[in-house]
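Researcher: We plan to redesign the surface later, but first we want a full-length starting point. Tokens attached.
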């Protein structure tokens, strides 16, 4: 578990940007932490690198740079987004240091757990196998889905900023970026199924996977509540939400608003 502890330390360092603005613990700090873990694993495993491990780490780096870059750009360039979020997300100015530290540590631990299937593969000297390749393909598809979804949403909002987005991937599922996120981490988890050496590693990997799935559904609930307030009186929006799954294509789950235990 030494390598896992080292990657937790990396996540703690890079997610510490949240002390500037507490929501960054789970946004910009998230992207930076995953990218940094990818780089740190390449360095830590430099004497036992295989093509599969290199590709897995590169996926972490690409994922983190894409997410972190997108969020930083949105923070710096989107005044409309920032003004809207001020009314929906607490600033954290009155939050105690103890509370901030609790969020920081919990978030960093989640990031380390999410990446743990690759961490344990390196620590256990497992090299590459077929399941790792399968997992990376799933992750790559997920990365492409969420990247395309973000581009399509930005393009649609430029054309009609006051309307909900129901074009492109949003025709298939209402939260394609969250679906892509779940696909990415499903691939990471699948790629590590064969390499966990003991129950503790299994528990850590499972906690990371279930944790990010919970966060994504919580994010979908928060988005649904926000969109219902903005577009709830629009008949087209009502038809859209009643016929388009909220999280997973073809799965007839159309709303998560009533599930109050989904807090994100």
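Model: Full-length starting sequence:
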């Amino acid at each position: 578990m030494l390598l896992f502890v080292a990657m937790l330390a990396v996540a703690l360092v890079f997610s510490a940007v949240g002390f500037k603005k507490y929501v960054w613990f789970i946004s910009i700090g998230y992207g930076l932490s995953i990218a940094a873990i990818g780089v740190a694993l390449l360095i830590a495993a430099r004497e036992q690198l295989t093509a599969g491990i290199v590709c897995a780490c590169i996926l972490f780096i690409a994922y983190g740079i894409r997410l972190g870059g997108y969020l930083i750009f949105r923070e710096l360039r989107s005044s409309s987004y920032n003004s809207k979020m001020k009314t929906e997300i607490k600033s954290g100015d009155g939050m105690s240091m103890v509370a901030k530290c609790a969020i920081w540590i919990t978030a960093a631990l989640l990031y380390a757990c999410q990446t743990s299937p690759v961490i344990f593969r390196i620590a256990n000297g497992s090299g590459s196998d077929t399941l790792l390749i399968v997992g990376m393909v799933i992750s790559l598809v997920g990365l492409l889905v969420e990247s395309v979804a973000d581009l399509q949403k930005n393009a649609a909002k430029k054309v009609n900023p006051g309307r909900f987005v129901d074009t492109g991937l949003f025709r298939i599922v209402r939260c394609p970026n969250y679906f892509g996120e779940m696909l990415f981490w499903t691939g990471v988890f699948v790629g590590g199924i064969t390499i966990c050496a003991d129950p503790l590693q299994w528990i850590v990997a499972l906690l990371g996977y279930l944790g990010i799935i919970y966060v994504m559904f919580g994010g979908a609930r928060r988005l649904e509540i926000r969109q219902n307030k903005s577009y709830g009186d629009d008949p087209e929006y009502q038809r859209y939400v009643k016929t388009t799954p909220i999280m997973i294509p073809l799965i007839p789950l159309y709303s998560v608003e009533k599930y109050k235990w989904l807090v994100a």
